[in-house]
Design goal:
globular, alpha/beta, about 25% strand, 17-stranded mixed sheet, 16 helices, Glucose Oxidase, domain 1
Length: about 575
């Protein structure tokens, strides 16, 4: 319990934050109401027990549509009910999420040719690809290749990498991340070192489809992608889940894929181009797409399975303003069976990612339930299919049980560090919304500080479930464990983070360890508890900061709501 530390010094902290809020919102705007809250009764035993169970081999890596999902949903509904909260979807704990699972097989090589020179690349080691279309057979045949730089069309930034070329029926070759990712600071046409949504592979494929492309191939580069080819290969092979779009399906490309950087270099060289020179040219908004004079061909078969996956939703109704909501999110799914480790283990258990975050939902629900209902309602949402592209979160955001205009804001939890307690907390996407003021108050009261994400170029703010809500205007916080460890400082924190990413992330060795140190996790959960409680006891409606890409969406939602923000 850290009740004393939360209360101590709060008046001074609140005074400082009131000035900060006035500076941020303008002198004529009222300061945010950031109330004092006591600490929660966080159960470490709950965290340990649920994380251990969810990441056991019995759950087979929690792939949507498998026995692992059935076991996970049953466990979460049981634990939510025991925590004393109520079903979040009427009298049901469940929101059905219709998905299509497409498993590619019998992949032909990717063949690049101009009629004289043939370049042939093997699936898995040199390229990977999938289809978003529900076709038993996928065939990309002699599709003309066009290099389109970063594949961005952003009118508000006076930037269009597709200008002057019709890519209908063609295959576009696209660089990963944003044009200014190598900038050391955060100033630039695309926020400098910090990735924007335009840098994410999801956007690049969506824009290629809008432009009429038949295929879209991203050039993998470990630094701007922020992960190695092993992550691409494991994530983009095997079963892939997508929303079942139905009659109103958006335009989709035939094939979306990745190639190794050396493969792209060889293709461009054969076309008389230089990858480094084109990459440099693509940093400018004056860049023009380059038709390569080669075509791409490949084919593969698809096993198609339609199934209903599930989001699990619980709610603690508010005592005085139950129609105003604060949301907590975490994804329960992982990769199921995946590329085997050298010892033959092929279950990606996802203990850290994200059995820990799922367990945190239950632990927070317990703590808030023990404390009693706050003024606003608290929502606990465990979403499906994050690993397939945030599908469960996007489905909820498109079909919200609780109106988004009445959702004050929220907190996302995706993988807790097992590094022990830290002096800080890592903020992913700092400076985006007025929720930063709630965070600052909670940190001051807790005696900790915030550290910006050390890899802004990775675009982590656009890579987890909170993004589905942010995209639709709801302010969301995304925090990671601290980097400045009490035992070992920043050097130890960096070493542990690098070890996890290199040896366990999205692999079979992300397994539960009975020797884990949970003290840092419990400290972070205390912070999340305080943040949720502050938002739920506040009378304010925090917004995005001026200039943020999501503010206009929030303003429009608020203007159209009679009962919400």
């Amino acid at each position: 319990m850290i009740t004393t530390r939360i209360k101590t010094g709060f008046i001074a902290a609140t005074a400082a934050l009131t000035l900060t809020a006035c500076d941020m919102m303008g002198a004529s705007e009222p300061a945010l109401d950031i109330p004092e809250v006591a600490a929660g009764d966080i159960s470490q035993a709950t965290m340990v027990d649920i994380t251990r169970t969810l990441s056991s081999d019995e759950f087979e890596g929690r792939m949507p549509g498998t026995i692992g999902e059935e076991l996970t949903v049953a466990l979460l509904t049981e634990k939510f009910e025991a925590a004393g909260i109520q079903p979040g979807n009427g009298d049901s704990w469940i929101q059905d999420v219709p998905l299509v699972e497409i498993t590619g097989k019998n992949f032909a090589p990717l063949t690049i040719t101009n009629g004289e020179t043939d370049l042939v690349y093997d699936f898995g080691s040199e390229w990977v690809g999938v289809t978003y279309r529900e076709d038993a057979q996928t065939q990309l045949a002699n599709s003309e290749l066009v290099f389109v730089g970063y594949g961005i069309n952003a009118p508000e930034r006076d930037w269009n990498d597709y200008e002057g070329v019709d890519v209908t029926g063609k295959t576009v070759v696209i660089l990963v991340n944003d044009p200014d990712w190598q900038t050391q600071g955060l100033e630039g046409p695309f926020n400098g070192r910090a990735m924007t949504y335009y840098g994410r592979w999801t956007y690049k494929y969506e824009e290629a489809a809008r432009q009429g492309a038949e295929g879209a191939i991203i050039v993998h580069d470990a630094e701007p992608a922020s992960y190695g080819w092993n992550v691409v290969e494991s994530s983009w092979s095997g079963a892939q889940a997508y929303p079942e779009y139905g009659a109103n399906a958006p335009t989709r490309t035939l094939v979306n894929g990745w190639v190794q950087k050396d493969v792209a270099r060889e293709i461009l060289s054969a076309a008389g181009q230089d990858l480094d020179a084109l990459s440099e040219a693509a940093k400018s908004k004056d860049f023009k797409p380059v038709e390569l004079g080669f075509t791409a061909s490949t084919s593969f078969q698809n096993d198609i399975r339609k199934f209903m996956s599930k989001n699990v939703i619980g709610v603690l109704p508010g005592a005085t303003r139950p129609d105003e909501y604060v949301i907590h999110t975490a994804h329960w799914d992982h990769l199921g069976r995946c590329t085997p480790a050298p010892d033959g283990d092929d279950i990606c258990n996802g203990a850290v990612d994200n059995a820990t975050g799922t367990a945190a939902l239950v632990a927070l629900a317990e703590a808030h339930g023990k404390a009693g209902a706050p003024d606003r309602s608290l929502v606990f949402l465990a979403v499906t299919a994050e690993e397939s592209g945030l599908l469960g979160a996007h489905y909820y955001a498109e079909n919200p049980v609780f109106p988004l205009a009445q959702t004050v804001g929220g907190i996302n939890m995706d993988a807790f560090d097992m590094a022990g307690p830290a002096k800080d907390v890592t903020v992913v996407g700092p400076g985006k919304s007025q929720l930063d003021l709630f965070l600052e108050a909670a940190l001051v009261a807790d005696g900790r500080v915030q550290t910006p994400n050390p890899s802004p170029e990775a675009g982590y703010y656009y890579r987890s479930d909170h993004f589905a809500f942010a995209k639709r205007g709801v302010p969301m916080l995304y925090l990671d464990g601290g980097q400045d460890l009490i035992d070992g400082g920043r050097e130890a924190g960096a070493a542990l983070a690098n070890d996890y990413r290199a040896n366990r992330y999205h692999g079979p060795k992300d397994e539960f360890d009975e020797n884990w140190d949970w003290s840092g996790v419990v400290a972070d959960l205390q912070l999340f508890y305080s943040l949720g409680r502050m938002m739920a006891m506040s009378t304010s409606w925090p917004n995005w900061n001026e200039g943020d890409e999501f503010k206009a969406t929030r303003d429009a939602a608020c203007a159209g709501s009679e009962t919400g923000c």
